[in-house]
Amino acid sequence: MKKIENAKAIVVKIGTNVLMGKKGADLRLIGTIASEISSLQRKGHRFTIVTSGAVGMGLERLGKKKAGSLNMQQASAAIGQSRLMGAYDKAFEKHRQPIAQLLLGRYTFEDKALAKNLNATVKELLKLKVIPIINENDAVSTEELSTVKGFSDNDALAALVANNFRADLLVIFTNVDGLYAEDPVKNPCARKITEVRGVGKVMKYACGKSSFGRGGFESKLCAIGSVNRKGIPAVVCRPRKNIIKDILKGKEIGTRFV
Q1: How many domains are there within the chain?
Q2: 176-181 — which CB contacts under 8 Å span 24+ positions?
Q3: What is the CATH number of the domain that holds 67?
Q4: DSSP state for residue 254 in the 8-state scheme
Q5: Does residue 52 have a pLDDT over 70?
Q6: pLDDT digits (tens, 9 = 90+) for 55-91
Q7: Residue 171 is part of which domain span?
Q8: Strands 255-257 and 234-237
Q9: Helix residue ranges, H only, 43-105
Q10: How far apart are CA 92 and CA 54, in angstroms?
């Protein structure tokens, strides 16, 4: 198992509920994340971002709270994707950090020719010190939207990215500060589990799905289990200023899966 403190190649997954607050897209938070990642990138770390939020931003643009049908979700994703990338581009541009957009699906990794082309593209982007920002191609694919194959809220996609691009660390940002023995919303005194050795032991603590996202802790634990088996540690936490720097310093942040 790789050590978190020595991580150079880092995959950061940003969930829908992190980006979409009660008043809409949290542009300030995107700016905070962009600032820290740009700073660490200049110090030699290599980042790949897996982001959700296209559907949420699309619904925000349409003035709707829920999509309803699958077709509406896909239309919302098509509307929101450009807005999502525009927010990231504006935030990273302040730090002169170039980014690139990649819209993928599970099929991209399963098809040998596509996977080879994808790996070559990502390798070149990282060589150019460009940060790939990856989302599931919701406008044409239904894997994440329908969750038939467990592609919930891009958790499985983040795991595929971390495994295929040989990451040293997977950081999953969510609106809960780690894994709790009970639902912290229902029980404010719930115990937070700070370190996990073996995902199967804590699967019973997985809570239900979130309001905006299609994930929940069960999908996160499944994703983390797949990267742990490849020797990649993971951290689940709520984002804040300098959060990744503190993780790399070995501070007790969220829940560590080692």
Answers
A1: 1
A2: 176/217, 176/236, 176/238, 177/237, 177/238, 177/254, 178/236, 178/237, 178/238, 178/254, 178/255, 179/205, 179/217, 179/221, 179/236, 179/255, 180/205, 180/207, 181/205
A3: 3.40.1160.10
A4: S
A5: yes
A6: 999 999 999 888 878 899 899 999 999 999 999 999 9
A7: 4-257
A8: antiparallel
A9: 54-62, 70-93
A10: 18
